[in-house]
């Protein structure tokens, strides 16, 4: 590939469009840009530490703290001291946070449906496989301690559930 912008530019555009879309769609629920990512991680594994959330999402501890505080203020999550490490907090979904899951997923599905609306079924599957393959590459040493789903190691042969 001669010009990396041919790949990175569209990926960045998709990411920014995704963030803007989700922020707009979830604004009425008091969920701001980037905060829904924290909910998505908690939907997979509730009760993880703030530090782990920051690592999974590849954001600073300060960014993680602000997002969690906003979600806490809106009543979607609560923090509790970690019994094993009194300096750390674990983040849990509240009932309200669990109830909003369907809305968040509906908005996410709507975005993906729009993104892939001109793709054939075969193209959608190829795209899904290629995006997954590319993202798994970033789980290798040097790109961060954890994968998006919280594992410290990626299984490249694993099928997405």
From TrEMBL:
GO terms for molecular function: DNA binding; DNA-binding transcription factor activity. It holds the Pfam family MarR. Keywords: DNA-binding, Transcription, Transcription regulation. Residues 1-136 form the HTH marR-type domain. The keyword Transmembrane helix does not apply. The keyword Transcription applies. Transmembrane segments: none annotated. InterPro entries: HTH_MarR-typ, WH-like_DNA-bd_sf, WH_DNA-bd_sf. SUPFAM superfamilies: Winged helix' DNA-binding domain. SMART domains: HTH_MARR. This is Transcriptional regulator, MarR family. It comes from Methanosarcina horonobensis HB-1 = JCM 15518.
